[in-house]
Amino acid sequence: MLSTRSPILAKTAYRAVGGVKPLAYQLPTARISVVLCQYHGATLNQPLQVRSFSFTSKAPLQTTQSLQISPTNPNQRETKQSWPHPIYNEKQMADIEIAHRKARNFSDRIAINAVRFLRGMFDIATGYKHDPKIASGEKSPKEETQFAMTEKKWMVRFIFLESIAGVPGFVAGTLRHLKSIRSLRRDNGWIETLLEEGYNERMHLLTFLKLHQPGLFMRLMIIGAQGVFYNAFFLSYLLSPRTCHRFVGYLEEEAVITYTRAISDIDAGKLPGFENMKAPQIAVDYWKMNPGASIRDMLLYIRADEAKHREVNHTLANLDGDMDPNPFMTEYEDPSKPHPSKGIAHLKNTGWSRDEALSK
Ligand SMILES: [Fe+2]
Ligand SMILES: [Fe+2]
């Protein structure tokens, strides 16, 4: 039960828990009590779970069976995907590796330091603790007895990470769109790739939300972080698009590290809750996975997506945004030679140089 004397605060709290309709507004004099109900993947005609206000979600990780029964909103309809996901094969996904592009100039150093700062904030906000020796590969997660990361902690981290990761593509796409229509010039094909990246990140988020519902505190953190990050990225992109793409490239390097660690934790038997869990239907449909695919399979797809974003943004940061075509949308004269593409067949971890990207 959350109580407030302010109708505005009550409305804000109602929105913060995901727009789930309050069961009752009680109006004794000026006091408004809002009973908030949390709704975890059941249909609306199933009994709603009412629980007290808390700062962290008490909701257990859901079994996928109950999640796959029905969509969360009775008005939801299946629609054709605006950006169908490219097909990745198992070997391509297994070959994804952690990589780092060395900072080579002042702009790169601003980008990498901004990412390191953000990474530190993320770690605090999501309670992330991973033995540095495990993180660096010196020690196997199997040898760790006091293991800090749990299924729920990973979910909190994924959800927070993905809620932020969906911002840059749309900001960059919006600004390039506006520039194109005010300068009466073509965009050279960048906008679609940028918007597609934002869409892909939102699909990651929606997938994780099928597995875990964050509590009120986390939701407020996400709202606050988006407000700050959107505006900061918007202003930064106006000042230096190149630095912003490099920043996203470094951010995606971190995302690949995060998902690689989560996958190795599953392999080491540290996350038994994930071992027999099936990927939710939204993931099976989006990535065109085999029915019965596991959470581990799903994380392999997501890690491959992050590696793709890493490549795309490091490459875009190597180009002249006013002059150069988007190499990931270009048709090449000799398709037998490796070129930038939509898939991950010729993935370049640290991006394509300008000469490579513009070759025919
Ligand atoms: Fe993502
Ligand atoms: Fe990403």
TrEMBL record:
User: Residues that bind Fe cation 2, according to the entry?
Assistant: 201, 252, 306, 309
Topology in membrane: Multi-pass membrane protein
The membrane spanning regions, by residue number, are 216-239
Give its E.C. classification number: 1.-.-.-
Binding sites annotated in the UniProt record for Fe cation 1 = 162, 201, 204, 306
InterPro entries xref list: AOX (IPR002680), AOX_sf (IPR038659)
Identify the main location.
mitochondrion
Task: Describe how the cofactor binds.
Answer: Binds 2 iron ions per subunit.
Query: Could you tell me which CDD domains the record lists for this protein?
Result: AOX (cd01053)
Give the family this protein belongs to, as stated in its UniProt record: Belongs to the alternative oxidase family.
Q: What does this protein do?
A: Catalyzes cyanide-resistant oxygen consumption. May increase respiration when the cytochrome respiratory pathway is restricted, or in response to low temperatures.
Q: What is this protein called?
A: Alternative oxidase
